[in-house]
User: What shape does this take?
Amino acid sequence: MPQIEIHAVKSYIEENIGNFHSTRLQNLKKLKLIQILKRKNPYLFRAKNILTAQNLVQTLLDAHLSSQEETLFGDFLEGLAIFINGIVYNGKKSSADGIDLEFSKGNIQYLVSIKSVPYWGNSRQINKMKDDFKKAQRILRSNNPNIQIVSVNGCCYGRDNNPDKGDYFKYCGQKFWEFISDNSDLYVKLIEPLGHTAKEKSQEFTDEYYQIINKFTLDFSKNFCVNGKIDWEALVKFNSSITEPKVGKEF
Assistant: This one.
């Protein structure tokens, strides 16, 4: 069985981390204030006693970006995991619905659903994953009735001290990266190369971020502030009324 070379992991990260940064920046540049005003809960932000347009805009924007970045970076980590497993176990991206990775170890065929976070779904979403595992198992057994199959929910960080979930195993953090690579130290060796070009890309993103804050604050003030105060009633109507009210300025 081939061993994963850290330099190969570093090369993959350095070649691909730029896609995460560029997509993150492109999404920020394309973002419209109207998008986040319609998607975020105005009642929550009123309950937090936010009093200035800039504070509200920045809080809304940060909440939106945090959710979006988690998804983008999760996609990057999924690709990294499949790359590493491909070297060590000749694993591949699965074509089955809901399954990200397939590989064999010994006499066992593994089906892996990769998530970036350990607490990623509600009971309905978890049941959907279990159904996807069962469907993929049926397809594999239709060609080989005696095949031994193990389903795994792999999470890129965190820990779970009770990995046996009955229908599947849940491996988090160190356990997940060791499972796909046969290298118990890999999970810590990923940190350093992830910083490749991070300072340069972060500054570029920060410059754009504050331009967006200034622009969105101006647009918000023109449409949802009266005499310097946030008009919460107008904001709630814009967000939730049956018929969307017209605003004074397109944004």
In short: The first helix runs from residue 6 to 30. The CA atoms of residues 88 and 235 lie 54 Å apart. The beta strands are 92-93, 101-105, 108-115, 148-155, 169-172, 225-226, 229-230. The chain has one domain: 6-240.
